[in-house]
Amino acid sequence: MSKDRLYFIARFMHGEKMVAKLQCALLALGGQQSVFVLANKNTMRNIKVNLIDILDVDTSHGVVRVEPLATMGQISATLNPLGWTLPVLPELDELTVGGLIMGTGIETSSHKHGLFQHCCVSYELVLADGTCVKCSKTENPDLFYAIPWSYGTLGFLVAAEIRIVPCKKFVKMEYKPVHSFQDLLKVFQEEVTRKSGNEFVECLAYSKDEAVIMVGNMTDDAELDKINPIGHYWKPWFFKHVERYPSSGPGVEYIPTRHYYHRHSRSIFWEIQDIIPFGNHPVFRYLFGWMVPPKISLLKLTQGETIKRLYEQHQMIQDMLVPMKNMGDSLKCFHSEVRMYPLWICPFILPSDPGMVHPQGDVAEMYVDIGAYGEPKTANFDAVETTRRIEEFVRSVHGFQMLYADSYMTKDEFRLMFDHRLCDKMRAKMDCTKAFLDVYDKVSRKARS
Fold first, then answer.
1. The pTM of the whole model exceeds 0.85
2. Which end of the chain is more exposed for a tag (fewer CB within 10 A), N or C?
3. Is pLDDT above 90 for 150?
4. pLDDT confidence bin for 444, thresholds 50/70/90
5. pLDDT value for 23
6. pLDDT band at 21 (very low <50, low <70, confident <90, very high)
7. With 0-12 CB in 10 A as exposed, 13-18 as middle and 19+ as buried, what is 94?
8. 288: Cβ–Cβ under 8 A, 6 or more apart, which residues?
């Protein structure tokens, strides 16, 4: 038996012990809703889930089986050297499988493959009564479709099977600058809807009228003088690297595949510039770049109440998912309300599946994620009122708000944005209300205040 197989068996046995601990913890609650209370995580009953590993890579069936705390950095480091990858591998190293399933995840390949949840084959959960179940499209399908966006309100995720696809050594990147709002919309739509090629598509908008649209395709062949290992700590931050193309004109380069996947990790998109304003200076990168980025968990741990309050009042971190047909109006809404740049624009196909998030009609529809991260520049910015106006616009075009971010919707507004029918049905069927809060009560600032 190979060492790799022995390792996977050892990790599987570790996982089985963790499942047993979860079952005991849930049964010990005696049916009382003491797992959570509304205030914050510090006042909740915490159940430690140390499920951090990749359990099996099955190339013959094209799936990888992982535990919920396995990260994207961990998965790409394991799969890429083997010539495989996830169809959708979100950028930041520390994003976990559990968070991307119970919440959501997106990548520049999502216009081909959908959101992270749409690449998942099966889930294994420990339910409120302590039982462990598996679900897929053919086994417990209602539970399978109810899990994404459920934020742990149906059970504890303990394992997931995810599709894998072959990958190549490099991503050939083409940078296409545009200098007007209309060209941004036109070129972006052309690249997203192109019939063949364009495995990866994204856009960084540096102002209302200036942006860079990037398309990428995997390749094993690269022009040596155009290879750019952008992930090295001494390299410029990716968004700063891209910012030069509006003045220099279109360009082509080859980025090693794993570097491409984590191109936004070192600068946390562009949030790092508000934490370390001089962090992109060449001297800092060469001497101290290896220490960047700081752990988000460390930043939260060392953040005092005053700093936290100031940050909430003067910063916005939001991802709004809107139909691509409404992209122009959505960008105008962001410009009017916050006037903050860059904006990240990433397309994704949204299938008409059951669950919390789906298009209005019965067919799949192309959406875009508009990511706004940083300090709003409008004079009248108010964290609550501004966010509520943007939320209202997003609801009006049948869009969705990523729920890792601050949400200020009322419960009725929240239920208008998200289709709760299947989630409500499964929570009632599995008697979840005795152990787990409703999604709104877990994620809404309004519910926790």
1. yes
2. N
3. yes
4. confident
5. 47
6. very low
7. middle
8. none
Question: ω into residue 342 within 30 of 0, thus cis?
Answer: yes
Query: Distance between CA atoms of 353 and 137, rounded to whole angstroms?
Result: 11
List Cα–Cα distances, 205 to 151, 239, 259, in angstroms: 31, 10, 22
Residue pair 365/350 in contact by the 8 Å Cβ criterion: yes
Q: How far apart are CA 280 and CA 267, in angstroms?
A: 9
Residue 42: pLDDT band with limits 50, 70, 90: low
Q: Which amino acid is at 349?
A: I
Q: Hey, what amino acid is at 149?
A: W
Give the number of other CB atoms < 10 A from CB of residue 239. Answer: 20
Task: Report the alpha-carbon distance of residue 386 to residue 392 in Å, rounded.
Answer: 10
Q: Prior bond to 87 cis, omega within 30? A: no
Q: Is 313 left (phi over 0), alpha (psi -120 to 50) or beta?
A: alpha
The pLDDT of residue 49 is: 73
- Name which of 362, 342, 340 is nearest 351 in CA terms: 362
